[in-house]
Task: structure prediction
Amino acid sequence: MRIPESPPSLDSLLKEELTTPEAWLTLTQRPTPSSSRNPYPHWDELRRLAPPEGWSTRRWWLATKLQRSGGAKVAPLQASDGRPFVYNLADPIPERLHDIDLRAGGSIAMPAAVTSPELKDRYLVSSLIEEAATSSILEGAATTRRVAEELIRVGRKPRDRGERMILNNFETMRRLGELRDKPLTPDLIFDIHRWITRDTLDDPTMAGQFRRPDQKIDVGDDYGQVFHVPPKADELPSRLERMCAFANDQTPAEFLHPVLRAIILHFWLAYDHPFVDGNGRTARALFYWSMLHRNYWLAEFISISEIILKGPAKYARAFLYTETDGNDLTYFLIYHLGVIHRALDQLHDFVTRKTEELRELDRKLRMMRLLNHRQQALISHALRHPGGDYTIESHRMSHNVAYETARSDLLDLVKRRLLAKHKAGRTWHFRPADHLERRLRGGRR
Result:
């Protein structure tokens, strides 16, 4: 990936442009970059655009930076050289925050497709699998979502490091839901890192431990290009304490929207890179903890890593734009808000589709009134996947129930001639019965 070109220094631009009193007035009346689809372009993008008539690109950038500096807010996070990170509440940030407030938090009303127990548990498990798989793939795991789903639903042991990463992520995400009311502490961050990296590190003793001063951890690509040099190891304890104070609303003194706090927390951990490995997964886990901590309960049902994976270069570029332009977090905030927005779109699309599917199933599968909601879910899946294969363990994991409950569900469906069973080794497998749809319509064969 190409590192974006750093902007020219403000000192040099000021010397060039502020040659008369009238020049200052001109700069404060900066035209809007009508040729850019991005309302907050970085210098690397702006320099490729046609400047307003009568303006040079450098003057245009100076005017842009002066305007941004006037409304900039200081974050508690400091760079390695001691300079603070700043951010602006530029468009489209206010609109995105309003949208997330309406669609993800508080007492938001959702159709039964998500809030009813029979679908909530099932969709939650699917969401956690999606996030576990894609977060692992982002960190280099060679696997697929299909493998991840089979690994987790069947409950088999991981075969390699990539599968172990997926299972670790899945189990960590489930724990975060239970920890949403806890304050963030260094010990909790170490626990999260330990859960995420269990049995995946070259040196297992580094799980839940700061990287050492002798461990050079630079962020770069496979070709030796360095994108980011994290703070020194001896600074990490104090930086982690400040990060926890920020996460727990102790800083800054002024109001900071909870979603922006969660995003900055994600950036902070990734910037400090306190561990030898697993920093990206830990950073994304802290984002989820922060959202759940502030009652954005639908965050548990979305996968930001799935969206990031579709354009990983944009994810990396958001970090680089921030670092190369005077520690301006606005780039990362805008990017991350867009990710959340798209993830919520996917969730709400699912709700719409699932609501219609349930209406259709209710019309078609009248005899399923005799079945419980877990059995209905399995038969619904079997109708769409005639070659489906189910086990007691996969049914148990899909619905978060006890083994005996899952066993009873499946044997009852066999008794009703909706499933057929066979044994492979020591495990019973259940498949859709022949002519399942006809049986559900009331036919004998």
Notes: The domain at 389-440 is CATH 1.10.10.10 (Arc Repressor Mutant, subunit A). Residues 152 and 256 are 38 Å apart (CA to CA). The beta strands are 73-78, 84-87, 219-220, 226-228, 390-391, 419-424, 427-432. The two ends are 60 Å apart (CA to CA).
